[in-house]
Design goal:
This protein is α+β, with helices and mostly antiparallel strands. The protein has 5 helices and 5 strands.
């Protein structure tokens, strides 16, 4: 069971370079809900409006950073007292989390810890 459980808990994640885009698939109703119920910045709004729509499915292409911002906007809107709205936003959050968990950023070799400079700050 150990081998099977490990493969279920930690699926193989795809590596991305910073700036690479992933696809988040949502329904038209979910996108309308995001636009109406969340406070999106212009960049996220432009990304959503630039998405491809086919057969009631909206395919939003965005970076993991944009996806993280979208997740934050949806989470903030979930604070509503409307349970039906919370449930719908929860489904959107789940879809975002599934995409986020499928990828990771590969840091370039120049960003290794050997290039970090530690600075000591002393109180006066």
């Amino acid at each position: 069971m150990g081998m099977y459980a490990d493969s279920v808990l930690s699926p193989k994640r795809k590596r991305l370079k910073p700036g690479d885009k992933v696809t988040l698939s949502l329904t038209l109703a979910q996108v309308d809900l995001i636009v109406e119920q969340t406070l999106l910045g212009e960049g996220l709004l432009a990304t959503i409006y630039g998405a491809r729509v086919q057969d009631n499915t909206v395919r939003v292409r965005c970076t993991l950073g944009e996806l993280e911002k979208l997740a934050g906007c949806v989470a903030a809107a979930k604070d509503s007292t409307d349970r039906k709205l919370q449930r719908k936003l929860g489904a959107i959050s789940k879809a975002i989390a599934q995409v986020e968990q499928a990828y990771y950023y590969a840091l370039p070799a120049s960003r290794t810890s050997s290039h970090l400079k530690l600075v000591r700050i002393e109180k006066s």
